[in-house]
Design brief:
alpha/beta; Isopropylmalate Dehydrogenase; Rossmann fold; 2 domains; 20% strand; binds nicotinamide-adenine-dinucleotide; binds 3-isopropylmalic acid; binds manganese (II) ion; IsoCit/isopropylmalate_DH_CS; metal-binding; 3-isopropylmalate dehydrogenase; IsoPropMal-DH-like_dom; manganese
């Protein structure tokens, strides 16, 4: 059987609750597909920061680099200043491990309620390829004359030709592999003219190598509207780091809620491990109550299985989730663990 080194970062809030269910499903599906996971847990997050002041120490980062793949719950806690864990742990991992593709499928499963009247699974089936290492996330900028009436805060968007080219190329490859073969660039090139023009130029340049892929451009403000009233416009979307963050929460909402939205922070070169996590955060408002939906994490486990070259196991997890979702409406409220148990049972039996 194939052995895969897996790092697990449960994190904060509902992170540990949903990760436990993701691992339950992973253990259930692995044997039938001849996989074993050598798991190492990392206690990164709010508790560690309170104890030691550390977010993601160099020594832990070095260990993570030696893993094949990472499963993360969520980070962030009201007891920690905003940004300390988000930047110091999550973004540091994405940047250091060069997760330049943040893959976020937006797919309505049959039987799942969407707030979009009249929309069905055929209307909502896209994948957002969010840039993961650049844009306004880099931390370039700062504060001048803090606390005075003359205070200035700058937060610059960094966009390199290298970074834009590689994510746009990846998005073309994804689009070329899907039946509709359509790629939409979402940006704001009417205002963010420097970065927008770079993305547009690279889209045209790389697009010349993919004549079978139809390309399209939508301003991000209009895109938020079209996600809601014309989701069929979208097949594959490529966009910058911040726009991708925002539109994938809208994507989650139209596809049945944030509790179902999966993602992968992917380094397609394989030079460092990729990291899979739900799109949602640590949800402090419901943490510790067994109310969190673990489905987003379980679908992230399916993406993880695809990434490690176990597509049959990935499809088995997706099928189990899909079957669970079609019955869900009739079942009434279930706890986090009950949902995980039901899906784990389907994949093992
Ligand atoms: P959030 O996604 O944690 O919560 C938004 C809303 O969605 C809340 O009402 C929450 O209860 C609900 N929700 C989220 N996940 C759910 C689930 N699995 N099942 C049911 N309901 C769910 O976003 P937020 O409130 O903006 O942020 C809370 C904290 O999480 C902050 O510290 C933020 O920085 C952090 N955060 C982390 C990540 C990450 O680790 N990838 C992502 C987003 C936010
Ligand atoms: C997400 C989160 C993160 C992001 C934050 C917590 C840094 O919102 O994964 O969507 O903005 O990427
Ligand atoms: Mn987000």
């Amino acid at each position: 059987s194939r052995s895969i080194r897996l790092a697990v970062v449960p994190g904060d809030g509902i992170g540990p609750e949903v990760v436990a269910e993701g691992l339950k499903v992973l253990s259930a599906v692995a044997p039938a597909h001849d996989l074993t996971f050598q798991q190492t847990d990392y206690d990164l997050g709010a508790a560690r920061w309170h104890r030691t002041g550390e977010t993601l120490p160099d020594a832990v980062l070095a260990e993570l680099r030696e893993q094949e793949v990472i499963l993360l719950g969520a980070v962030g806690d009201p007891s920690v200043p905003s940004g300390v864990l988000e930047r110091g742990l999550l973004l540091r991992a994405r940047f250091e491990l060069d997760h330049y593709v943040n893959l976020r499928p937006v797919k309505l499963f049959p039987g799942v309620a969407t707030p979009l009247a009249g929309a069905g699974p055929d209307d909502i089936d896209m994948i957002v390829v969010r840039e993961g290492t650049e844009g306004p996330y880099t931390g370039v900028g700062g504060v001048l004359r803090k606390g005075t009436p003359a205070e200035v805060a700058t937060q610059e968007s960094v966009n390199t030709y290298y970074g834009v080219e590689r994510v746009v190329r990846y998005a073309f490859e994804v689009a070329a592999s899907r039946p509709r073969r359509k790629l939409t660039l979402v940006h704001k090139d009417n205002v963010l003219t420097f970065a927008g023009e770079l993305y547009q130029r690279v889209l045209a340049e790389v697009g010349a190598e993919f004549p079978q892929v139809a390309t399209d451009y939508v301003h991000v403000d209009a895109a938020t509207m079209f996600f809601v009233n014309q989701p069929r416009r979208f097949d594959v979307v490529v966009t910058d780091n911040l726009f991708g963050d925002i539109i994938t929460d809208i994507g989650a909402a139209i596809a049945g809620g944030i509790g179902l939205a999966a993602s992968g922070n992917v380094n397609p070169t394989g030079a460092a491990p990729s990291m899979f996590e739900p799109v949602h955060g640590s949800a402090p408002d419901i943490a510790g109550q067994g109310k969190a939906d673990p489905t987003a994490t379980i679908l992230s486990v399916a993406m993880l299985l695809d990434h490690v070259g176990a597509p049959a196991a990935a499809r088995a997890v997706e099928r189990a989730v899909s079957d669970d979702l079609t019955e869900r409406g009739a079942l009434g409220a279930r706890s986090t663990a009950q949902i995980g148990d039901a899906i784990a049972k389907r994949v093992s039996g």
